[in-house]
Write a structure and sequence with these properties.
By secondary structure, the protein is an alpha/beta fold. The protein folds into 2 domains: about 15-205, 2-enoyl-CoA Hydratase, Chain A, domain 1, CATH 3.90.226.10; about 210-255, Lyase 2-enoyl-coa Hydratase, Chain  A, domain 2 (Orthogonal Bundle). Helices cover about 45% and strands about 15% of the residues. The chain is built from 11 helices and 9 strands. The protein has helices at about 40-50, 80-100, 115-125, 140, 150-160, 160-170, 175-180, 195-205, 210-225, 225-240, 245-255; strands spanning about 15-20, 20-25, 55-60, 105-110, 110-115, 125-130, 135, 175, 185-190. The strands form 2 sheets. A 6-stranded mixed sheet has the order 1-2-3-4-6-9, with helices on both faces. A hairpin with a 2-residue loop joins strand 1 and strand 2. The chain is globular, with a radius of gyration of 19 Å. The protein starts with 13 loop residues before the first strand and ends in a 10-residue tail after the last helix. The relative contact order is 0.11. It binds 3-methylmercaptopropionate-CoA (MMPA-CoA). 3-methylmercaptopropionate-CoA (MMPA-CoA) binds next to strand 5 and helix 4.
């Protein structure tokens, strides 16, 4: 894998590599369990906002024993109310560049996936969990509240009732339970997550870019809109996608026996 100078300039807590048309971002502050300080959040924003040309999918993962211990608690103590609000909005902005950025993002998690670390993973489109992964929202016990989008993204994944339980009682979920309730899409053995994440990203990168755009940007908005508006948006998106040269070429390939068949297993 080649480090690429085309990526945005990143702080030492982040490391970027390019593997073909896949961008790989590693949280690289294992001595602090990949706690997310301001510099790191701004680096994540810059990375996803300015991906080099030709990148078609991305993977985010963490160095060391844990994906991320969440918000860097050391930076919190001096902040007043207004600063706290701007800080949360900064996280929102950064993670918007993941959720509604240029390319689909696969998060590979292991060990602690805690607080802001879970919020980061939730902003990705696909989550791969190693068996060591466990999930927690310790904000309640720290006297704070989630600020990186958990209130919006986590209820969509696991329901408001489970998020309430995690925050009120400190309940944690292990990797198996996380897989069952929908925190992860894929479960792997320890040490196998990154390879699985890259494999998935490479598969995603073979889709037509317009289809990936529709899945990232249109599908979630339709899912949250009124059904009538949703059907209309779907019809518009379907028409736009079908009309593209790439769709025509792919459909022709299938009809002329060059396109792959859909198989299972
Ligand atoms: C940290 C942080 C951190 C570790 N901020 N420095 N997040 C939390 O409440 C989770 C807090 N962390 C932990 O519960 C544990 O550190 C872990 C379970 C993740 C890992 O345990 P362990 O035994 O491997 O590591 P450690 O000995 O606890 O930590 C190693 C070092 O990392 C140590 O620093 P050192 O200078 O003494 O070596 C820790 O202080 C440091 N460290 N976690 C700062 N989070 C947008 S709002 C989001 C709100 C939240 O994310 S709240 C959740 C915060």
């Amino acid at each position: 894998m080649a480090a690429s100078s085309n990526f945005a300039k990143l702080p030492p807590s982040l490391h970027a590599e390019r593997k073909g048309d896949i961008a790989i971002l590693r949280l690289s502050r294992p001595e602090k369990r990949n706690a997310l300080d301001d510099e790191t959040i701004l680096g994540i924003e810059a990375f996803f906002a300015r991906l080099p040309d030709g990148i078609k999918a991305a993977v985010v993962h963490g160095a060391g024993e844990h994906f991320s211990a969440g918000l860097d608690l050391g930076e919190l103590s001096e902040r007043d109310t207004a600063e706290g609000m701007h800080h949360s909005r900064m996280w929102h902005r950064a993670f918007q560049h993941i959720e509604f950025g240029k390319v689909p993002v696969v998060a590979v998690v292991h060990g602690a996936v805690v607080g802001g670390g879970l919020e980061l993973a939730a902003a990705a489109h696909i989550r791969v969990a190693e068996r060591s992964a466990y999930y927690a929202l310790p904000e309640g016990s720290r006297g704070i509240y989630v600020g990186g989008g958990a209130s919006v993204r986590l209820p969509r994944l696991i329901g408001t009732a489970r998020v309430m339980d995690m925050m009120l009682t400190g309940r944690t979920y292990g990797a198996d339970e996380g897989q069952t309730i929908g925190l992860s899409h894929y479960l792997t053995d320890n040490g196998a997550g990154l390879a699985k994440g890259i494999e998935l990203a490479e598969k995603i990168a073979t889709n037509a870019p317009l289809t990936n755009f529709a899945i990232m940007h249109v599908l979630p908005r339709i899912a949250e809109s009124d059904p009538a508006g949703g059907y209309l948006a779907e019809a518009l998106m379907a028409a736009i996608a079908q009309g593209s040269d790439e769709a025509k070429a792919r459909l022709k390939d299938f009809l002329e026996k060059r396109g792959g068949k859909v198989t299972h297993g």
